[in-house]
Amino acid sequence: MSGEADRAEDGGTVEVLIPLALDQAYSYAVPPGLVLAPGDVVQVPLGPRQTVGVVWERGAGRGGNLKAVTAKLDMPPLDGALMKLVDWVAWYTLAPKGSVLALALRRPPEDGPERPKLGVRLVGAPPARMTPARARAIAAAEGGLLIAKSALAEAASVSAAVIDALVDAGTFAVEPLPREAVAAMPDPDHAAPALSEDQAAAAAALVASVRAATYGVTLLEGVTGSGKTEVYFEAVAEAVRLGRQSLILMPEIALTAQFIDRFEARFGVRPGLWHSAVTGRRRERLQAAIASGEAKVVAGARSALFLPYRDLGLIVVDEEHEAAYKQEDGVAYHARDMAVVRGRIENAPVILTSATPSLETRVNAERGRYTHLKLPERFGGRTLPTLGLVDLRQDKPPRGRWISDTLAKAMTANLEAGEQSLLFLNRRGYAPLTLCRDCGHRFQCPNCSAWLVDHRFRRALVCHHCGHVERRPHECPQCHAQESLTACGPGVERLAEEVATLFPQARGIVLSSDFPGGTERLKTELMAVASGEFDIVIGTQLVAKGHNFPGMTLVGVVDADLGLTSGDPRAAERTFQVLRQVTGRAGRGEKPGRALLQTHDPAHPVLKALVSGDPERFYAAEIAAREAAGLPPFGRLAALIVSANNQPEAEAHARALARCAEAPEGVAVLGPAEAPLAVLRGRHRMRLIVKTERGVDLQAYLRGWLARCGKPKGSVRVAVDVDPQSF
Ligand code: ADP
Ligand code: ZN
């Protein structure tokens, strides 16, 4: 925190960082009567308007003719650790510091006190005139408990008007509901499980790291179902015992009711939840509880990294290999890596968990930079699923079908045994491409270099990159042939049709991010699947993650080759991770599971490593290949995406950048070439790749380069992506 020496008062100046896409703090004079210290939230003039900013440091000069700070706002100052994190993230990602500050700055509270939500209570006699609806509402309110109006309406299946009428009649009284707690105190000993020997050893090491209260990273690697969650809960429990705060970072979609229920079963209360659907006052209150230290455990998506913890004693990054941790828009940060940075700043231990760690993390563990804990077996004597390959060259489904005989037979057997199956296909929609059989016309996005995906349920053709939607026409827009449009290839919706034909008696459900009703409905359906309400789940990558479906005993991977054919050097790692994850959905309950992977290339090393059940083989080969190629983590990478409204401008600037690259020893600049999506949202994109040796100061090189080359003109923008996830 700031000391006396950092204070600035009348006659002095301060550097104020404004949460906009500005790289530098601006100098302001301190007006008479104000004393300002770093972290203080202030109001300052910016051009013609007033804006909020944070005092970043004391200024060197005298006030002179600078504009003055307007006021110090009545808000808690930004914590020193958070300021360091903002500085660090901005330095590392090359994002404007103000944009990073925007991730961390609390909004000023909304005006006026929070209006409490209202509930009703049964207090008086029934009204003279009774109706069946009124009777139901009264029956549901029996016992005189205070109930939210909406909850009562739902429980009694009556409209709000029925309840209002009963209030008017004096049968119900209206009272404010108590505020829902955002941060109840977890009980570390509420229901501690009996751990297996392996689990207990891992938990003891993690608990020790929490007690040591110093920075250090531990990789907790364990096969799916080995109890990683139970084990890191022990570390969280220890932090709670010590009165310190824990942050559990998760991919957004993993923050399901299932996780919350498990947390509640273990600790007796729900964790503080932080994700995009938490808004308004609840968000404000949680932030305040985090800043005061009252919220002991926060489970959140990546933005939870920038919350103002008062006393962070532990950070857990669940499923650390997840690509969802990388923010692609705006500040391009990787939440796992920044979690490690925050751990270092806070001097707190960091736990990374995964069944299939990223190569970066594996290498850090192997080289001793991270502690490596392993849970080699599933809990409770459960076995990992047996994996088999289906060679599609021999067992070829008929035209327009994607489920082989072998897979269909296995599904039939499962259905007869009353067990659940999962068909995995990482393709949303009905078909990835639509073309005209007569003239060959293909439907392309007008804004992107991408095909439009057929979504039958929505009756539309959709671009998965920019969201462009158009109606699927009846005739070909080019040759005007009727009935000539053909869907090419399968998406999950089309697969669902095939399932309905093959297994008309089965209860099937398609789960993808297109699920009508959004994430919340989706979470409900995931619970329904877990409780056995469906026989066959047809899903994208979404179902691969973090869910426990106890009745699921068969996983069919419809196209195991799908991820392997891209030119991306990370393709093998990604495919290995997702296939191991999704096949790991099978056999997590009482009964053992198995998985069948359909492929045209059964000799592929990734598939062989999966089937052999020996991930070490995969990691060893992949790590050796990366090392030989000087790719991360053995070398460093950054991508520069140059975009413009038209192709010539984008290309001209990309070429100009390449000309002033002046790459020193140990740095190679590749390109420019068309970016993988050459046109995105109407912007033409060129890409340069910077590849350096490990010891090179990549950020310093990039800064120098961009400064040398001058600001882009016209519609040209340059986006820097340090550690790009695909390259
Ligand atoms: P992972 O996170 O490694 O996939 P989980 O922590 O989800 O594993 O554990 C898998 C299942 O086994 C869960 O249902 C969990 O409750 C159960 N489980 C794991 N360890 C124990 C234990 N020691 N006692 C009771 N149940 C356990
Ligand atoms: Zn598009």
UniProtKB/TrEMBL annotation:
Cofactor: Zn(2+)
Organism of derivation: Bosea massiliensis
Binding site for Zn(2+) 1: 436, 439, 476, 479
Keyword Oxidoreductase appears in the UniProt entry: no
Top enzyme category: isomerase
InterPro entries: DEAD/DEAH_box_helicase_dom (IPR011545), Helicase_ATP-bd (IPR014001), P-loop_NTPase (IPR027417), PriA (IPR005259), PriA_3primeBD (IPR041222), PriA_3primeBD_sf (IPR042115), PriA_C (IPR041236), PriA_CRR (IPR040498)
PROSITE patterns: HELICASE_ATP_BIND_1
Keyword Hydrolase assigned: yes
Name of the coding gene: priA
Enzyme Commission number(s): 5.6.2.4
GO molecular function, one term: hydrolase activity
Subunit details: Component of the replication restart primosome.
Lineage top rank: taxon: Bacteria
Name this polypeptide is given: Replication restart protein PriA
Function, in words: Initiates the restart of stalled replication forks, which reloads the replicative helicase on sites other than the origin of replication. Recognizes and binds to abandoned replication forks and remodels them to uncover a helicase loading site. Promotes assembly of the primosome at these replication forks.
Short name of any one Pfam family annotated for the protein: Zn_ribbon_PriA
Co-factor binding details: Binds 2 zinc ions per subunit.
Protein family according to the UniProt entry: Belongs to the helicase family. PriA subfamily.
Binding-site list for Zn(2+) 2: 445, 448, 463, 466
Reactions catalysed: ATP + H2O = ADP + phosphate + H(+); Couples ATP hydrolysis with the unwinding of duplex DNA by translocating in the 3'-5' direction
Keyword entries, A-Z: ATP-binding, DNA replication, DNA-binding, Helicase, Hydrolase, Isomerase, Metal-binding, Nucleotide-binding, Primosome, Zinc
